Predict the 3D structure of the following.
Amino acid sequence: MAKMGRPRKEIDFDQFEELCRIQCTEVEIASVFGISIETLNTRCKEQYGQTFLEIWAEKSAAGKASLRRKQWLLAQDGNATMLIWIGKQWLGQTDTQKIEHSGAVHVHFDREDERL
């Protein structure tokens, strides 16, 4: 007897890996392929022998490295915004100032209505 049901939706795993590299979420990737999250996980196990999260962690890391490389190149080319951002993120630099006050502070309140 033939199996009934919806036809199997195939996944382009090259596209899947690229979507992981650009940090797409599980929901977004499933949506691109028109499948459920459960189906996406099943297909990952079939294709890679691992869960979606395991594959995503591996493939998205390559995307993060590529983005980091581009940021680094922009900073090296003198992009002031990127230099500031990298300084704050990686070097702990801040643009806040610490203000100290020495001496007494006197505060006086006049109340018109003592019932308050």
